[in-house]
Design brief:
609 residues, alpha+beta, 3 domains, six-stranded antiparallel sheet, 14 helices, disordered N terminus
Length: 609
C-alpha cells in the first residue's frame, strides 16, 4: 500500500516515504543457503495451474488496513507495528475457520515485513529483502508453511525497483549470477523510481537486471509464496515520465515468476495509468485502479475519504476485467462495525460495488472479531457468486447521485444494483428499457435472499443515504423496440466547436465531438406519438468523467454526470430521462459556456404506441 495518502498521515508515515525499503529473506538456516542448496528446493515448487492464474477474482485477507490504522489498540507500539508473524498467523487461522468455506483463501502480508519498528530495512548478502527478526522471528518460509497447513495461500509484498539501501555502493553481488552486482542492474546516474522515489530505477537493457529479479522470484518461490504484490508502479502511483515507467519491471517479474515453476499471482499497485492497460493485462494478474481505500485515521476507512470515489473511478476500467486479470478496487473493510468507520448501509454498498465490479474480495478487517452483520456481508453466497461467476462486470446505466448499475449475464439474466450516493434518503428506479427489454421481469433480491415476484417495466426502491440493493432480473417480456438517432446525421445542428469525427466502436463508426466551451449538438426531429418522459439511452465516449446539459424544445436544461467510458474511442451508454411533446421535438446536448462534455455517438429512444 503506502500511497501518498499514507504519507500525509503523520510523522511515522513520512518516515515510511523516506525509505520504504529493503528486506528479504529468512530466519531458518535454509534462508541463507548456498545456490546449490536453493536449487534442490526448486523441485518442491508446485506445478503451474491448469487454465492459468486469476480465472476469477481472488479472495482473502490483507494486513495493510489494520497495520496502517490509528484505531485504538491495533498498533500499540507505534505505526505499522501490527505487522508481526503472530498477528498474521492469527488472521490466517481465523480466515480458515470463518471464511475459507466461502472461497477466501489468500493471506497477504503487505509492506514492512523486512523492516524494523523504526522502518529501517534489512537485506541478505545478495541485496534481497530479509525478514525483520523481531516482526518475523522464524523468517518468512515458516509463515507460508503454516498458512498452507490451513489449506490457504500465502502472499508477500515488494516495492518496484532496487531499493536504495540494497544498492551497497553497487558492490552487492546478485545471487546465482556470476560477475553481476547491484551496480550492474541500475542506471549509472542512479535515477529513482516508484511512487515514493525510494528505489533506484532498474535498467533492463542490462542482462544482470533480469537476473536480479529472477533471484528475488526464486527466493519467494522457495519460501512457498503464492502471491506477490508489487507496489508503487508507474505510469501510475501519482507519477509519470520515463523514470516512473515500470512496465519493463512488471514484464521482468512475469518472466521471473514463470521461471520458478510455481504458480505465483502477480498483483500491481497503485492508481495505474489506464493508457497502458495492454501492458498491465499482458504482464500481471490484477491492477489497482485507484489510490488506497484506507483513511489513515482512527478507523480503517471512511465513506468520504475514498470509498465513494470508486463509483466515479471504476467505470473506465470495467471493459478490461476478465479471466486472467481483474480490476482491483482495494481492501474490502466491511466486517468489523465501528472499526470500519461506516454505517451498515455504507458497508453493504461497499460490498455490492466490489462484487458487481468483479474486484478481488480481500478484507482488511480483524477476522477474529467480525460482527454478525459483517459475517452476513462477507458470506452471502448469492452476492459472492456475482463476483465469482463467469459474467461481465457491471457498469453504470444511469447518471447522478441515484445510480443504477447493471450487466447482462450469459444465461440471459441481468445483475442490477441500485445505489443512492446522496447524503439523504432517496428512491432509485431501474427501468427495464435501460437494459433493452420491456414488459415483465422476475426480481430476486440477493442481499435478502428472497424473490420479489414479477415487476412490469421497472423496479423502484427507497434507499437510505449511501444505501444499495442488489438484484438478479429475469426478463419475461420482449426486446424493447428503440428508435436510433445518430449524432452525425446531417439533419442535426452543430454549434461552437462541435464536429463529426471517426470512432471505430461507435454506431456508424462516427460521433460528434468538440463539445466544450459552448459546443452543442441538437437533434432536430425526435418524433414520439405521445407526450411523456422518455428514457434515452445515450451512446457516448469519454476519457474521463464529464457532465453535459440536456434539454428538449428550448426548455431549461438538466445537467447529467457521465462516467468515463474507458477512453475517447471506447463506446458506452447512459440512460437519461427527457420530457417530450407529441410529434417532433428538438433535443440538445450542450457543454455549457465553460464546460467540457463527452462526445456523443447516438441516442436510442424507446418507441411508444
Amino acid at each position: 500500500m503506502l500511497s501518498p495518502t499514507a504519507l500525509t498521515a503523520g510523522a511515522v508515515a513520512l518516515a515510511v516515504a523516506a525509505s520504504l525499503t529493503e528486506v528479504s529473506a529468512q530466519a531458518t538456516p535454509s534462508s541463507h543457503s548456498t545456490p546449490t542448496a536453493r536449487a534442490t528446493t526448486t523441485a518442491r515448487a508446485t506445478p503451474v495451474q491448469k487454465g492459468g492464474l486469476a480465472q476469477k477474482p481472488y479472495m482473502g485477507w490483507s494486513s495493510w488496513s489494520m497495520q496502517s490504522s490509528k484505531y485504538p489498540g491495533l498498533n500499540p507500539t507505534g505505526g505499522y507495528s501490527y505487522l508481526t508473524e503472530a498477528n498474521v498467523l492469527k488472521q490466517a487461522d481465523a480466515l480458515a475457520a470463518k471464511l475459507k468455506a466461502y472461497g477466501y483463501e489468500y493471506v497477504n502480508i503487505d509492506a514492512g515485513w523486512w523492516r524494523t519498528w523504526d522502518w529501517k530495512p534489512g537485506f541478505d548478502q545478495y541485496g534481497r529483502q530479509k525478514a525483520d527478526p523481531e516482526r518475523f522471528p522464524r523468517g518468512m518460509k515458516p509463515v507460508a508453511d503454516h498458512i498452507h497447513t490451513k489449506g490457504l495461500k500465502a502472499g508477500i509484498y515488494l516495492p518496484v525497483g532496487l531499493e536504495k539501501e540494497a544498492y551497497g555502493e553497487g558492490k552487492v553481488p546478485v545471487w546465482n549470477a556470476a560477475d553481476c552486482t547491484t551496480g550492474d542492474i541500475v542506471y549509472s546516474d542512479l535515477r529513482t523510481t516508484n511512487g515514493w522515489d525510494s528505489s533506484y530505477k532498474i535498467d533492463f537493457s542490462r542482462p544482470c537486471a533480469q537476473q536480479y529479479i529472477d533471484s528475488q522470484a526464486r527466493l519467494f518461490a522457495d519460501w512457498g509464496y503464492d502471491f506477490l504484490k508489487v507496489d508503487g508502479v508507474g505510469p501510475g502511483s501519482f507519477k509519470s515520465g520515463d523514470n516512473y515507467d515500470n512496465r519493463p519491471d512488471i514484464a521482468a517479474w512475469k518472466r521471473a515468476l514463470a521461471g520458478t515453476g510455481r504458480d505465483i499471482h502477480l498483483e500491481i499497485s497503485w492508481s495505474l495509468d489506464i493508457n497502458y492497460m495492454a501492458d498491465w493485462k499482458k504482464h500481471s494478474n490484477g491492477w489497482r485502479i485507484d489510490t488506497d481505500v484506507e483513511c489513515y485515521c482512527n478507523t480503517l476507512v471512511t465513506w468520504d475519504n475514498s470509498v465513494e470515489d470508486r463509483w466515479r473511478d471504476t467505470p473506465a476500467w470495467t471493459r478490461h476485467a476478465g479471466p486472467g486479470g481483474f480490476n482491483d478496487l482495494d481492501s474490502l473493510d466491511v466486517g468489523n462495525g465501528a472499526m470500519d468507520g461506516l454505517t451498515k448501509a455504507e458497508r453493504q454498498s461497499y460490498m455490492t460495488l466490489w462484487a458487481i465490479s468483479k474486484s478481488p474480495l480481500y478484507t482488511g478487517d480483524d477476522l477474529t472479531r467480525l460482527d454478525d452483520y459483517g459475517i452476513s456481508l462477507l458470506t452471502n453466497r448469492e452476492v459472492l457468486k456475482v463476483d465469482q461467476q463467469a459474467s461481465p462486470p457491471a457498469r453504470p446505466v444511469t447518471a447522478g447521485e441515484q445510480q443504477v448499475w447493471g450487466a447482462k449475464n450469459p444465461d440471459g439474466t441481468y445483475t442490477v444494483a441500485l445505489f443512492n450516493l446522496a447524503d439523504s434518503p432517496a428512491a432509485v428506479t431501474a427501468n427495464w428499457s435501460s437494459f433493452g427489454f420491456s414488459g415483465q421481469a422476475s426480481v430476486r433480491d440477493l442481499w435478502n435472499r428472497e424473490n420479489l415476484g414479477r415487476h412490469r417495466s421497472s423496479i423502484t426502491q427507497a434507499l437510505p443515504a449511501h444505501g444499495s440493493r442488489l438484484f438478479t432480473i429475469t426478463p419475461h417480456g420482449p426486446t424493447q423496440p428503440m428508435t436510433a438517432y445518430e449524432a452525425e446525421d446531417s439533419a442535426n445542428t452543430l454549434s461552437g466547436n462541435a464536429s463529426v469525427g471517426g470512432c471505430d466502436e461507435c454506431s456508424g463508426a462516427k460521433k460528434v465531438g468538440g463539445l466544450y466551451l459552448g459546443g452543442a449538438l441538437r437533434f432536430n426531429d425526435v418524433v414520439v406519438d405521445k407526450a411523456g418522459t422518455y428514457l434515452f439511452n445515450v451512446g457516448y465516449t469519454s476519457g474521463d468523467p464529464r457532465s453535459i446539459q440536456v434539454s428538449a424544445n428550448g426548455r431549461p436544461a438538466a445537467t447529467w454526470d457521465f462516467p468515463s467510458s474507458g477512453g475517447w474511442g471506447a463506446a458506452a451508454a447512459i440512460s437519461v430521462p427527457v420530457s417530450l411533446k407529441a410529434g417532433s421535438n428538438t433535443v440538445t446536448f450542450d457543454s455549457g459556456p465553460s464546460g467540457y462534455a463527452p462526445d456523443i455517438d447516438k441516442i436510442d429512444a424507446p418507441k411508444r404506441s
